[in-house]
Design brief:
Blueprint lengths: L1 H33 L1 H6 L19 H7 L3 E9 L24 H9 L22 E10 L5 E4 L1 H4 L2 E7 L5 E10 L4 E5 L21 E6 L7 E12 L9 E4 L11 E3 L5 E8 L10 E5 H14 L5 E2 L2 E5 L2 H7 L7 E6 L4 H5 L6 E5 L2 E2 L3 H10 L5 E8 L2 E8 L1 E2 L21 E2 L4 E5 L6 E6 L4 H4 L7 E5 L2 E2 L3 H13 L4 E8 L2 E8 L6
Antiparallel strand pairs: 1-2, 1-4, 2-3, 3-6, 4-5, 5-6, 7-8, 7-10, 8-9, 9-12, 10-11, 11-12, 13-20, 14-15, 15-16, 16-17, 16-18, 18-19, 21-22, 22-23, 23-24, 24-25, 24-26, 26-27
Amino acid sequence: MRSKFLARTRKWIGASALAILVGLGGGTAFLAASSPMAAAQVTPVAQITAPDLTAQNPGFANLVDAVKPAVVSITVEGREKPPAIDQNNNDFNGQIPDLPDDNFLKKFFQQFGAQFGPNGRPGPGPQGQAPQGRRFAAAGSGFIISPDGYIVTNNHVVENASKVTVTFDNGDTKSAKVVGTDERTDLAVVKVDGATDLPFVKFATDEARVGDWVIAVGNPFGLGGTVTAGIVSARGRDVAGSNYGDFLQIDAAVNMGNSGGPTFNLKGEVIGVNTEIFSPNGGNVGIAFDIPAKTVQQITSSLIKTGTVTRGFLDVRIQDVSRDIADSVGLKEAKGALITDVTDNGPGAKAGLKSGDIITKVDGQEIDNALALSRTIAGDQPNQTVQLTVWRDGKETTISATLGTFSNKGDDNTKPNTPPSDDQGVTQSSVGLTLVPNGNGDGVLVQDVDQDSVAADKGFQVGDTILEVDNKKVSTGKQFEAAIKAVKDSGRSTALIKAERDGSVRFIGLPLDASKG
């Protein structure tokens, strides 16, 4: 598609140029044919000289010359983590399928089937060792931040690497070791030993502004030393699947292999680290995301000092506050972080936080959404005491909380729902949900959803468990309906529903006076 587009573009430009020449030439020819005097009076056209714009727009060459020696290419080798072996009996039974003799799959099973034990599980490795993951090789980018060889890159560039090689701008190569990684922000630091006088760059102290010129330098597709230019397109981007958010968005061309490379401002300072791109086909479409310099500097400093990153922790589960939720609790603005669950004996529980609380400020700093709270608390240190402004029961209160230490290890809090027995009643609720009691006693199960109801619009699904209405527990359809009626009687038009799906708890604001037409 691109080559055809370019061909059409070139053809259009060429045709336009030709039309202009014909227009000017045709006019002159007409005058010459109709009046010799007119032709004699035509003044020769002076040669057009383009103005010298280098003084006003000198380009980026001097900037590139200054910063490019500090940008490196990184290649890694290693083994992927071996896949977990299924301990159930739901996998390949080790028998060659009944396939035609000329089928390539049958030849595959005949050749490699002996490597698998009972139920298709990998057989023992050499000397009884566990099976190893596949070998891999990958490439990325990085940049030097100190003369003694500390280099910043992405965690996903060096993850599971057993060998790291750094190629400098002059072509020299050196081995490096991983100093520390942080999966949450996707940052890592590696170091070249024995270095004493390497060129290095500094982080920007001023925040980048939308519209600022930037250049990205890196190793796209293993090409190395590639420079692209653009602007800061947006700030504060939250990217789906990221634990961090708050990315800078740039339109400088960034491709596979640029990961870990720097983006510079016109002062030659690093404003961000290239981390992700948005692309429907894997190539550059002018949307790339950078981790801001302030975060990079904070995380890498900790990695260099201790090899790890420590974060504050409340041990609560949170979600964003929608407009419906804000209406249901009397909050003017749809901002803050709504607590869906509080872990027993965790820092949040010890501070007195409850499910349904909305944290609107931390130490006076406003909290816009759940990710903002997560970043703010993670930026504080364990054992630090913070002042939380909380919206509870229609009014604001302040709670002091002493933070714990964040751990990347998560607990499986999934509690399977138990289907009700046959003799338990079914309730056709007034909001389009068919409800039955949960067999384990926690909440009511959604048995059916009227697809023409507002409940369907708000995302309720069969199998959801409704735990609370307006912060009141419900265990029967009758209790659910009574709680809905109480919300209406109080003059409110939206009910706050606490629901659970696949072990994940969320609050949903359910409008009660809306009708679909």
